[in-house]
Every structure is written in structure tokens, then in C-alpha cells.
């Protein structure tokens, strides 16, 4: 019996040691992220990064490697804080063998998302029946996957599982029930902010459809669409204030500010800037329009969960990289998508230069002239589309998106093993291998 007890004590000590090593590794990676946030506020990849070869850890065929120092670790598209941690003598995490077999992110939080949708309907209320009716029209006819609230719920679950694995209790002043309710409310707020931005975007773009259905501005008119978007922002702001967490309020308010900045950047011509390349301008705009809400909402969920700073930083990194990957693929689908619910070449028809075209300019410089005049002359759109198809612009855009998804997966893998952690990795894969 005595040797058995000694063996048991040894195993417990070993488990604690491994937990300590994991926590140390997470802190090291998060400190790199935090240091880069402080020293490099732009947070953008250089255009030259897309020239590097990409071997995707998200591709099921080759399988996964040990994250953190093995020779099979795949990381190619990165700033300093994204570099693999080859010089760290602690295990970071074991990457799953096959992402296809991981928990489906949308299935895992399906019931929570039902609660989110029901709660949004209650939040809209009936105090302003016309505005509420317009907003409800959008939600009831929305065929989207609701990626943003799904991310919030997954990150919250993964971080909680990590806390339990590290045997770190919640502060006595906060219960698990309250934490879960607050994080679900944040998921609702995130979806309302996103929906408001889509309503406003459709007015600015004069879009007649949204995911294959008549847009709000087409059905109710532009003025009512703008007011309905404002109504959603107001309701989301009230809900946010009721969470009584100043840091979460600041994070989400920043994301709203960035949505406006991103839309203004999209309306302007990047070639008019002397201090920044068109591709860097494009990446900044993508972060403001897509990445900021994803990164700040993921971080806010962990702030509400009273997690340590390094855990919150990992949530931010996951959301940021997913956001950049998501938008890059969105722009690729504008050229080759068949199930997107919007016409092909919609960006070109709106005068927008996105990654496939910006990268194709290196092979076909004439595209720069077409871009400067926003494809306004007859035949410009057809010529631009043909040259992009002939170039490597689409393939390089996909490679860049996959690289960003890899970085999101690496951030996710710093959490302790759990179905939510694995679903985060699967979500990174789904974002880049989608057709709509």
C-alpha cells in the first residue's frame, strides 16, 4: 500500500508541475502579445509577409505538431509577437491530430445561442414598435452563422475550463451563475452591435439584398434603416452599462469607434495616403471593420470572467486573428464564391480594392490605375476581374488568411484541454475553409 500511495503522490506532484509549466508557457506567450500591443500599436502584417510559403496546421492531411518548439511547427505569417516559442523550455500544448474530429463550435453552443436570440428579442422590446419591427425583420431573416457571439461563448467556456484545470477559484465576490449570465449578455451585445453595423453598411452601399434577401433599407427605406441601426446601438449600450464593468464598456465602445473608422477608411482611396501602403491601409481597415469587434468582445468576455491579464490577452489575440482571416476569405469569395448571398464582384462594382486585387497589382501594374479611378470606366471591372483571375492574388490571399487562422489556433491551444478549446481550433479551420 505504501508504494502505491507514494506513486499516487508522485503523480499528483507531476500533474501540478505540468500545470505550472502550462501556466508559465501561457504567461510567456501572453507577455509577448502584450509587449507587442505596447510597442507596435499598428498591429499589421507587412505586405511582403504573403510571399513566405505556408504549410497549414489547419489542413487535416498532415496532422498537427507539438506547439512550441518541435521541428514540425508551422508558423510563417507573423509579427514578432506571433513567432513560435521555440526558445521556451516548457510545453505549450498538444495540438489535436485532426481538426475534422473536433467539437463543432456552433453545435457546442447551440442552446446558448437559442437563449441569446430569445434575449435579443426581449431586449428590443415594444417601446418603439416601428424600430423594433425593423430590427426584428433583420434578425428573423438573417441566415448568418452568428460567428461573433459564438466566439464569445466559446472563449468564455475555454477560459473557465482552463481556470478549473489550473485549480484557480473565482473571486468570492462573483458566482459562476452571474459570470455565465454576464458573458451571455455580452454575446447578445456583440451581435446587436454587429447587426447595427450591417444595417448602416447597407445604407452606405445602397445594397438591395443581404444574404439573398431584401435588405432593411430596401424594405423600409434608408432613413428607417439608419434609425433602426441607431436603436440597436442604443439598446446594446444600455445592456453594456448594466454589466457594471468599466473595462468591458471601454473595450466594446472602442470596437464601435473602430467600426466607424473602418467604414470611413473604406470610403476613401488608399492610394491618396503617402505614409502607408495600400495593402497596409487595407489590413488596418479590415481590423477596424471586422477584427476589432471580434478581439475586443472575446477579451471583454474574459474580463467579465475575472481572468488574469495574460488569459484576457490570449482571448484578444484569438479574436484578432480570426477577424483578419475571416475578412480575407470574405474578399476572396467576392471573386469566386457561389453561396455568399451577394453578387460576385460586388467589391469591384463598389470601387473597392481588396487583397486579391492589391496582390495582383504586383504582377499586373495596370491594376493600380484601375484602382485609383475605382473601376469607374466602362470595361474596368471586367479587366480587373480577368487579371486577378490570371494572377496569384487569390491564392496568396488564401495563404495569408490561413496564416492568420493558424495564429488564432495557436492562441486557442494555450488553454487547457476542453471541448470549447478544441471548438475554437475547429472554428479557425471553418473560417478559412468556407464557401459563404
Automatic annotation (TrEMBL):
GO cellular component: a single term: transferase complex
Cofactor(s) this protein cannot do without: Mg(2+)
Signal sequence segment: none
GO molecular function ontology, one term from the record: prenyltransferase activity
One GO-annotated biological process of the protein: ubiquinone biosynthetic process
Database matches in PROSITE patterns: POLYPRENYL_SYNTHASE_1 (PS00723), POLYPRENYL_SYNTHASE_2 (PS00444)
Record key words, sorted: Isoprene biosynthesis, Magnesium, Metal-binding, Transferase
SUPFAM superfamilies, alphabetized: Terpenoid synthases
Family to which this protein belongs: Belongs to the FPP/GGPP synthase family.
Protein's name according to its UniProt entry: Solanesyl diphosphate synthase
Taxonomic source organism: Phytophthora nicotianae P1569
Amino acid at each position: 500500500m505504501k508504494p502505491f500511495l507514494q506513486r499516487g503522490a508522485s503523480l499528483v506532484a507531476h500533474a501540478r508541475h505540468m500545470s505550472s509549466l502550462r501556466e508559465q508557457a501561457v504567461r510567456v506567450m501572453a507577455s509577448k502579445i502584450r509587449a507587442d500591443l505596447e510597442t507596435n500599436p499598428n498591429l499589421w502584417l507587412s505586405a511582403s509577409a504573403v510571399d513566405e510559403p505556408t504549410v497549414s496546421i489547419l489542413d487535416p492531411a498532415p496532422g498537427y505538431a507539438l506547439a512550441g518548439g518541435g521541428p514540425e511547427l508551422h508558423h510563417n505569417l507573423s509579427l514578432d509577437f506571433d513567432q513560435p516559442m521555440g526558445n521556451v523550455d516548457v510545453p505549450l500544448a498538444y495540438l489535436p491530430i485532426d481538426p475534422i474530429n473536433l467539437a463543432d463550435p456552433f453545435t457546442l453552443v447551440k442552446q446558448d445561442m437559442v437563449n441569446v436570440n430569445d434575449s435579443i428579442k426581449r431586449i428590443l422590446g415594444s417601446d418603439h414598435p416601428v424600430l423594433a419591427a425593423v430590427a426584428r425583420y433583420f434578425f428573423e431573416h438573417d441566415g448568418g452563422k452568428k460567428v461573433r457571439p459564438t466566439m464569445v461563448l466559446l472563449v468564455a467556456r475555454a477560459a473557465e475550463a482552463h481556470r478549473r484545470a489550473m485549480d484557480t477559484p473565482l473571486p468570492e465576490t462573483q458566482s459562476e451563475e452571474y459570470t455565465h449570465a454576464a458573458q451571455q449578455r455580452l454575446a447578445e451585445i456583440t451581435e446587436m452591435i454587429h447587426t447595427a453595423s450591417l444595417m448602416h453598411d447597407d445604407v452606405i452601399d445602397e445594397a438591395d439584398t443581404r444574404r439573398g434577401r431584401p435588405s432593411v433599407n430596401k424594405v423600409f427605406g434608408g432613413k428607417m434603416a439608419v434609425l433602426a441601426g441607431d436603436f440597436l446601438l442604443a439598446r446594446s449600450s444600455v445592456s453594456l452599462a448594466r454589466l457594471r464593468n468599466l473595462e468591458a464598456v471601454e473595450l466594446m465602445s472602442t470596437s464601435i469607434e473602430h467600426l466607424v473608422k473602418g467604414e470611413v477608411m473604406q470610403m476613401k482611396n488608399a492610394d491618396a495616403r503617402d505614409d502607408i501602403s495600400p495593402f497596409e491601409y487595407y489590413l488596418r481597415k479590415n481590423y477596424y471593420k471586422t477584427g476589432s469587434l471580434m478581439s475586443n468582445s472575446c477579451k471583454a468576455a474574459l474580463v467579465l470572467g475575472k481572468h488574469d491579464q495574460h488569459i484576457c490577452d490570449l482571448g484578444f489575440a484569438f479574436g484578432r486573428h480570426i477577424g483578419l482571416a475571416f475578412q480575407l476569405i470574405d474578399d476572396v469569395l467576392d471573386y469566386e464564391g457561389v453561396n455568399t448571398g451577394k453578387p460576385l464582384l460586388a467589391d469591384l462594382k463598389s470601387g473597392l480594392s481588396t487583397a486579391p486585387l492589391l496582390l495582383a497589382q504586383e504582377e499586373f501594374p495596370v491594376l493600380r490605375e484601375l484602382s485609383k479611378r475605382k473601376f469607374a470606366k466602362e470595361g474596368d471591372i471586367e479587366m480587373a476581374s480577368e487579371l486577378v483571375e490570371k494572377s496569384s492574388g487569390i491564392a496568396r490571399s488564401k495563404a495569408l488568411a490561413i496564416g492568420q487562422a493558424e495564429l488564432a489556433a495557436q492562441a486557442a491551444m494555450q488553454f487547457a484541454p476542453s471541448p470549447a478549446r478544441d471548438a475554437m481550433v475547429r472554428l479557425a479551420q471553418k473560417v478559412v475553409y468556407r464557401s459563404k
